[in-house]
Design brief:
Layout: H1 2-7, E1 17-19, H2 22-40, H3 46-53, E2 60-65, E3 68-84, E4 88-101, E5 105-110, E6 116-119, H4 126-138, E7 149-166, E8 169-182, H5 184-189, E9 194-195, H6 196-199, E10 209-213, E11 219-227
Parallel strand pairs: 3-8
Antiparallel strand pairs: 1-2, 2-3, 3-4, 3-6, 4-5, 4-11, 7-8, 9-10, 10-11
Length: 228
């Protein structure tokens, strides 16, 4: 299937060509997931699989050069820290990624490394990406973001990930790290918090709260609350 899509990009030419077909980008992302699973003998962390599955022409670049595909993206990974008078300071730790199937309900997987992870748009700065993500997570406008967050902190260090997935596919990821300071009271006022049992999500004893996001409200991240 992939090879059929490549012919249209004149891959015999040495000039790099940018591929913006959503189907081809998705197919490459799934190929990365499957190949790494086979090579390592264990799957990627669930949050990494989810981030790859959500790649689009808007947040990823797929380039064809000399019959080799180069798939690249940037991501921002951050933690949410809360501080409430009388309650103290807490850290929200993601424990599950959930997707709603209209016919079968919610399915989920362990989150893996416990930080929030999202893809950045092409050309988007990390701090701007964090603001956009929070606006969507908490359903607030840019001017109301201060009502949810006391501060956004972007760490200077960025982690680069590069892998030669196969003979004709390379993967490049630059991951930025940051943190969000807020309060449970503000998150509750923004109607950003949901009890997992109210959503019908079964997380056992781990994540009792969740953030629901996406235009169709099909994605959620459950989290545990740990004293900071």
């Amino acid at each position: 299937m992939l090879n059929e899509g490549h012919h249209q990009d004149n891959s015999s030419d040495n000039t790099p060509s940018l591929i913006r077909d959503q189907r081809i980008i998705t197919a490459c992302a799934l190929e990365v997931i499957d190949t790494i699973h086979i090579q390592r003998g264990r799957p990627l962390q669930p949050r990494d699989r989810m981030a790859l599955k959500l790649l689009t022409p808007r947040n990823a670049a797929l380039m064809m050069k000399e019959n080799r595909r180069h798939l690249g993206c940037r991501q921002v990974s951050f933690e949410i820290l809360t501080d409430d008078v009388g309650l103290g300071s807490y850290r929200l730790l993601p424990v599950g990624v959930h997707v709603l199937n209209p016919h079968r309900g919610w399915w989920h997987d362990d989150y893996g490394i416990r930080r929030f992870l999202w893809n950045l748009y092409l050309g988007e700065e990390p701090i701007e990406g964090m603001q956009r993500i929070l606006e969507r997570l908490f359903k607030v406008s840019p001017k109301d973001l201060r009502a949810v967050s006391d501060g956004l902190d972007m760490k200077q260090a960025a982690h680069d990930i590069q892998a030669n997935v196969s003979a004709d596919l390379s993967l490049y990821i630059r991951r930025h790290k940051g943190s969000v300071e807020t309060s449970l009271r503000r998150l509750n006022q923004a109607k950003a918090l949901y009890r997992t049992k109210d959503l019908g999500i079964d997380t056992g004893e781990d994540g009792r709260m969740a953030l629901v996001f996406g235009s169709n409200r099909r994605y959620a991240v459950s989290f545990a609350v740990e004293r900071a």
